C-alpha cells in the first residue's frame, strides 16, 4: 500500500487522472446524489458517499448522513481502496488493526464497505462506500450490490467526461458542464445570492474564418491550448469552461465585488500578450454578467455572457458588463427578423404604400415609389425604420425583394389595365445585385404580367453598388439592356467615385433627403445640392429630390433645374385607393 506522503509514479498518475476529470471541489450533483441515496437505502445504513481520494484528503462528491465535505486521507478506509484498487470491507473498525485508531472509529463509525471507482485506464479515483454505527457482517450479495453502485458512479463520471462534458482540445469542462454547475450552484450558495461570471472571447468569428481559410484547424487548436494556462490563472484556480470555439467562461469567487472583479479582468486584458500569429490576427474581449444564484436560468446566464462579450468589441477597453437595455434591443432585432420571415408567407400582414414623384416643371405625377409596410397582428404597425435596415444583413433580402417586386408588378398591372401609365420604382439591396438570376427574375416578372420594361424602375444605393462593383455593374447593365430603368438612391451619402458613377447605366439620380431638408436655411447645402443637380445632368441623368416638405424648398429645387421631387409637401406614402383619389384631385 503506497503512503500518501511519498507519492509513487503510480500515485502521481492516479492523481493526475483524478484532477483531469475536474470533479474535485465541484458543486453537488443530483446525478451522483441519486446513486448515494440508493446505496443508503439498499444497505439500510445511515451513511453513504462517493469519496474521491486526493493527495491528503478524502473529498465527498456526494454524501448521505455526512455534514463535512472532506476528511484527512490518513487512516481513511477509502484511501485503502484507492491505494489497492480493491474493495475494502471492515465489519468492525474497532477490531481492525489499521482503522481502530482512525478518525472514523473515533467518531463512532463501526462498519465500512467501499468499492473502487476505477477508470478504464486502471486509475482508482476513490470509493463508493457505505458506513454504519454498528458492526455488520459482509455478504457476497453486499459486495455485488456495492460493486454495481460503484459501476453506476463511474458510468456517470465517464458520461460527463466523454459524452458532452469535456472539450477534447482544451481538456476543459464544456458548455454543458457550465450549465450543469451553474444550476447546481444554488445548492452550495443560497438561492438568490448575487454572483458574477465572465466570458473571455479570444477572437471574433470573422477573424477565425479568415485565419482558418489560410492556416487550418491546427492553428485554432494551438490558440486554444496556449491560452488555457493563462485562463486558469485568471480564474484564480477556479474551474474554467470551454463554452465556444474560442470562448471560455468562469465564475468569480462568491462575494466578489463587480469593481474588483472587472479590475482584475481589465488588468489581464492590458497585460495579455498572445504568442505567435495570434498576436496580430485576433482580438480578445471579455463579457461580464451579474446573476442571481438559483433564480437566473443557466442558459440565460450563458446567453448574456455571449452578448456582453460581443458588445465588448465596441468598447475601447475590450470589456463590457452585460446591459439589459442593449440586450433587449438585440432581442427585438432578432424578433423582427423571425417575424418578418413568417410575415412574408402570410396573405395580409405586409402591404405596399406608394409615394408619388412630382414633376417640378408641370406638377404631373408620372411615377411612384413602392414602399413596404408591415401591420403585425400583435405589435401593430411596425415602422419601416425598424425592420428595413436589418433586411440586407440577413438571408431575408432575397425573399423580401421578391415579395415587394411581385406585389408592385401586380399593382402596376392593375393600373395599366385601367389605362394608367404610372411607373413604379422598387428598392433593391446589395444582395440582390449579387444574385446571378436577379435580372432574369425581374424580366420574367414583367413578361408574366404583360408590362413594358420601362414601367419598372429599380432603385439602389451607392453603398450597395460599391459592395461588389463589378457584379453590380453587370447586373445593372443587363437590366438596362432589358429596358428596366435604373435609379441611384440616396445620392451623396455613399462612397462611390465620380468615375464609377459615369460608367453606371443609371437613368435617375435621387438626392438624399438629408441634403434637401433645411437647404433653404443653409447656403452651403444649397450650393452643394445645386452642384449635384448640375453634375448629374452633365452625366446624362434625371434628378429626383427626396424629402421635399415645403414650397420654398420645392422652388429652390425648381430654380436649380431639378426634374422631380418627392416628399410630404406633395404626398405621404399611401394605399392604391388613396393614391387614385390623390391623382384625380390633381387632375381636376
UniProtKB/TrEMBL annotation:
Q: Which Gene Ontology molecular-function terms are recorded?
A: cyclic-guanylate-specific phosphodiesterase activity
Top-level division of the source organism's lineage: Bacteria
Q: Supply the InterPro entries for this chain.
A: Cyclic-di-GMP_PDE-like, EAL_dom, EAL_sf, GAF, GAF-like_dom_sf, Rev_trsase/Diguanyl_cyclase
Q: Could you tell me which residue ranges the EAL domain spans? A: 333-587
Cite a single Pfam family from the UniProt record.
EAL
What is the protein named? EAL domain, c-di-GMP-specific phosphodiesterase class I (Or its enzymatically inactive variant)
Amino acid at each position: 500500500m503506497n503512503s500518501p506522503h511519498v507519492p509513487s509514479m503510480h500515485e502521481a498518475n492516479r492523481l493526475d487522472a483524478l484532477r483531469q476529470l475536474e470533479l474535485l471541489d465541484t458543486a453537488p450533483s443530483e446525478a451522483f446524489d441519486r446513486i448515494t441515496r440508493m446505496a443508503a437505502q439498499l444497505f439500510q445504513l445511515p451513511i453513504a458517499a462517493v469519496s474521491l481520494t486526493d493527495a491528503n484528503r478524502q473529498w465527498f462528491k456526494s454524501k448521505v448522513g455526512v455534514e463535512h465535505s472532506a476528511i484527512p486521507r490518513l487512516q481513511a478506509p477509502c484511501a485503502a481502496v484507492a491505494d489497492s484498487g480493491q474493495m475494502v470491507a471492515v465489519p468492525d473498525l474497532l477490531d481492525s488493526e489499521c482503522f481502530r485508531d482512525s478518525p472514523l472509529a473515533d467518531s463512532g463509525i463501526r462498519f465500512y464497505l467501499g468499492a473502487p471507482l476505477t477508470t478504464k485506464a486502471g486509475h482508482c479515483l476513490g470509493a463508493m462506500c457505505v458506513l454504519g454505527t454498528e458492526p455488520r457482517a459482509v455478504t457476497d450479495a453486499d459486495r455485488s450490490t456495492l460493486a454495481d453502485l460503484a459501476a453506476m458512479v463511474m458510468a456517470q463520471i465517464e458520461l460527463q467526461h466523454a459524452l458532452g462534458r469535456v472539450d477534447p482540445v482544451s481538456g476543459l469542462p464544456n458548455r454543458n458542464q457550465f450549465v450543469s454547475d451553474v444550476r447546481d450552484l444554488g445548492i452550495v450558495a443560497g438561492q438568490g445570492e448575487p454572483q458574477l461570471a465572465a466570458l473571455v472571447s479570444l477572437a471574433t468569428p470573422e477573424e477565425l474564418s479568415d485565419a482558418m481559410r489560410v492556416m487550418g484547424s491546427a492553428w485554432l487548436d494551438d490558440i486554444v491550448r496556449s491560452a488555457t494556462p493563462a485562463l486558469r490563472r485568471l480564474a484564480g484556480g477556479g474551474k474554467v469552461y470551454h463554452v465556444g470555439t474560442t470562448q471560455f467562461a468562469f465564475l468569480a469567487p462568491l462575494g466578489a465585488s463587480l469593481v474588483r472583479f472587472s479590475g482584475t479582468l481589465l488588468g489581464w486584458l492590458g497585460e495579455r500578450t498572445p504568442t505567435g500569429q495570434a498576436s496580430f490576427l485576433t482580438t480578445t474581449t471579455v463579457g461580464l454578467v451579474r446573476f442571481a444564484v438559483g433564480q437566473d436560468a443557466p442558459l440565460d446566464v450563458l446567453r448574456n455572457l455571449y452578448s456582453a462579450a460581443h458588445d465588448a468589441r465596441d468598447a475601447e477597453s475590450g470589456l463590457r458588463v452585460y446591459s439589459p437595455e442593449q440586450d433587449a434591443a438585440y432581442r427585438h432585432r432578432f424578433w423582427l427578423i423571425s417575424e418578418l420571415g413568417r410575415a412574408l408567407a402570410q396573405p395580409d400582414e405586409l402591404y405596399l404604400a406608394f409615394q408619388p414623384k412630382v414633376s417640378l416643371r408641370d406638377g404631373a405625377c408620372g411615377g411612384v415609389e413602392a414602399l413596404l409596410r408591415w401591420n403585425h397582428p400583435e405589435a401593430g404597425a411596425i415602422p419601416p425604420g425598424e425592420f428595413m435596415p436589418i433586411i440586407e444583413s440577413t438571408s431575408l433580402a432575397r425573399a423580401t425583394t421578391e415579395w415587394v417586386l411581385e406585389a408592385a408588378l401586380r399593382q402596376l398591372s392593375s393600373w395599366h389595365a385601367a389605362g394608367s401609365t404610372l411607373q413604379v420604382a422598387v428598392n433593391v439591396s446589395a444582395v440582390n445585385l449579387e444574385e446571378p438570376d436577379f435580372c432574369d427574375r425581374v424580366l420574367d416578372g414583367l413578361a408574366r404580367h404583360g408590362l413594358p420594361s420601362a414601367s419598372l424602375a429599380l432603385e439602389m444605393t451607392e453603398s450597395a453598388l460599391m459592395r461588389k462593383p463589378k457584379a453590380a455593374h453587370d447586373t445593372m447593365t443587363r437590366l438596362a439592356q432589358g429596358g428596366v430603368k435604373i435609379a441611384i438612391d440616396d445620392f451623396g451619402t455613399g462612397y462611390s467615385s465620380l468615375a464609377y458613377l459615369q460608367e453606371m447605366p443609371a437613368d435617375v439620380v435621387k438626392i438624399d433627403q438629408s441634403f434637401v431638408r433645411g437647404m433653404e436655411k443653409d447656403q452651403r447645402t444649397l450650393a452643394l445640392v445645386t452642384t449635384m443637380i448640375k453634375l448629374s445632368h452633365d452625366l446624362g441623368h434625371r434628378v429626383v429630390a427626396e424629402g421635399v416638405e415645403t414650397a420654398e424648398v420645392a422652388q429652390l429645387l425648381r430654380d436649380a433645374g431639378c426634374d422631380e421631387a418627392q416628399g410630404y409637401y406633395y404626398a405621404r406614402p399611401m394605399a392604391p385607393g388613396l393614391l387614385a383619389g390623390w391623382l384625380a384631385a390633381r387632375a381636376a
